[in-house]
Amino acid sequence: MDKTSYTNLAKMWELAEDRAFSHQSEDMNAVRRHAEESDSPQGSAQQAELLNLLVRIIGAASVIAVGTGSVVETLQLVKGLEGRGQLTAVDSSAQGIGLIRSLFTQLDDVTQTTLRAVNAPVEVFLPRLNAGTYQFIAVCGEAGNYAAAFEQAPRLLGEHGMIVFTDVMALEGSESNGGVLNPADRSDKAVAMRTMLDEIQSDERFISTFVPVGTGMLIAVKN
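Above: the chain's sequence. Below: its structure in token form.
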């Protein structure tokens, strides 16, 4: 690829992100504004939009959202469930779980989906859940969430269940210095993502693909 091709790809990404933002509903915009005003920056609109679509495609009814204050992605997952099933959001930060609980309070009267918000470390809470009863797991936020969630995914997911990791290029957050794309970035998340990409894509229990959506998404389906 020449320089013009890379420039065009960058413009395409910008267009896709702008379109995703423009498609957000007013309630989604309000959730994003509130979170960011509460000093909880939100991730790519493309990433969140694709999570919604994937939940709909596989017809998931039991979803786990692992994150750190990622209320936009959580709301997209709830919308993807279309009033059915249940969603369990796990967040180890007090601020993050506060935002999630506030969101769920707003949604109680407008969705039949059972919503549960749990304030606990991922590595402590996920081992307590029943095996083989979930169809979809979404992971975002701090570095420790990723390995802990993937460790439990083979046990938690049913046949052909899906786990999706967002921001695998580690470009979000104040610690990022170019993320995975910059070899000099030795932040916790950038280091973790370099390892995770290789581990997941070589794991024979899953079929996976890395897609350049938002700040990078890794989608893995259980064999």
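The CA atoms of residues 9 and 185 lie 23 Å apart.
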